Amino acid sequence: MQDLTIFLQSLVAASVIFVWVVRYDNIIQEFKHYGLPDWLRDLVGILKLTFALLLLLGIQRASLAMIGSLGIAGLMACAFAVHLRVKNPAFKLLPSLILLALSLIIAVINYRLINA
C-alpha cells in the first residue's frame, strides 16, 4: 500500500508542478478567460505548489501527505465547480475530477497508514 501512495503522491505532485510551472502561460489565459482576478490566480498557484510540496514531503511523513492531498482535493473541487459554471466541455472537466479522486485516494491511504 505504501508503494501505491508514493506513486500517487508523486504523480499528483508532478502534475500540479508541471501545470503551474511549465504551462503557466496557459493558466494565465484560463483565469482571464473565466473572468477570475490575478490575485486569485496567484493565491491558487501558491496553494497548489505548497500542497504539491507537502505531497512529496509526505512520502516520509504521512501527516504531511494528508494535508497536501486534502488541500489539492479542495482546490480541485473548486476547479471542477468553475469548469461547470463556465460550461466547459467534458474533456476540460476531467483533469480536475481525476486529480480530485486521486487526492482523496491518497488521503484515505495515508489515514490508514497513520492509524495502523
Number of strands: 0
Number of helices: 5
Structural class assignment:
mainly alpha
- Provide the residue-averaged pLDDT: 95
Question: Could you explain how this protein is built, in words?
Answer:
The model has no long low-confidence stretch (mean pLDDT 95). This protein is mainly α. Helices cover 86% and strands 0% of the residues. It is elongated. It contains five helices and no strands. The chain has one domain (2-114).
Task: Give a quick rundown of the structure.
The chain has helices at residues 2-22, 24-33, 38-57, 62-85, 90-114. The protein is mostly helical and 116 residues long.
Supply database-style keywords:
single chain, about 120 residues, mainly alpha, about 0% strand
Q: What's the layout of helices and strands?
A:
Elements: H1 2-22, H2 24-33, H3 38-57, H4 62-85, H5 90-114
Helix pairs in contact: 1-2, 1-3, 1-5, 3-4, 4-5
